[in-house]
Amino acid sequence: MLRCGNRILPSRLQSQRSYSTSTPQAQNQRKNPIQNRSVSIERDRTERYSEWKQRLLNLLHESAENMDVGLIERIESLLQSEFTNNQPLHLGILAAYQRCGLKEKQKRFLLEKKLPYETIRIHIASTMKLDVPAAMWFFQQSKQIRIPHPLIWKDIVDMFIDVNQLEHAERFLTLETNELPIPHMKEEDLNNYRIPWGKFIRALGKNGKVEEQLQALEQMRSLGLLPNLIIFNIVLGSLGNHGHVDLMLRVLSDMKTDGPQPDSSTYSAVINVLSTKDEIEKLNEVLTDAMLNIEEPQLELWGIIVQTLVVFKLKVQVESSS
Which end of the chain has less neighbouring CB within 10 Å, N or C? Predict the structure, then answer.
């Protein structure tokens, strides 16, 4: 029996009490009181940290609304000792200075903190939705820290494409590519900078600007950033879809001469176009060329070749019977 004062506890409560004090969790609490206290302190600290961070973000928003530059600067000073690597607060400082039209303070904060490219990218992307010139100014300032990351290029090109300002996208890519130290860069890094060019060239094709696509290829060559196979395949597909068969075959011929060499995807795209255009003689030449020059064709290409040969044979029979 277990007494509580002058009362005797029922056996059911006794068993519950016995069970609750024998669980692993209860045993750990008795064995490791210091560790449990440390966990509790760390949890409380994390919660207070998040709470203070949110308060500061709210204050930054209010100070920008009220043009209270002094408060923004006081909050910035806190970042010297606390919240030193906190991306949301860094973005809040940049947005507040921008809202107040204080470009020089924005620039100073950027350079002193040497903000990472992720923070720079987010700020540029959010700014471009409201003020494109301000975003481009900030982009130019960020180049004082390091070479712009290709993802930032991609975001800017995407924005110009979304608003159908392809001429601005071309000007941006041309100017920025001209500043790249291409001879000293790895091929893997160069491929990352080719991605925005590919998006721009694809956008030209969607707008039916095939001549501009060919000009973009030449522009890349002149800047030293040679177009890769992906970009050439984009151009070939666009030329074929818009009915420029002769231009498509000329580009294919240039690839075999000057590179990059066509692959299975290249020939698949060209064969598909010629099949739909009833270009039987040209189709036969490309089929022969593909079988001779592709050492290990992908399964997709073999399927297209076999299917096209069957269709081609049927067309010959129809023509001879007539």
Answer: C
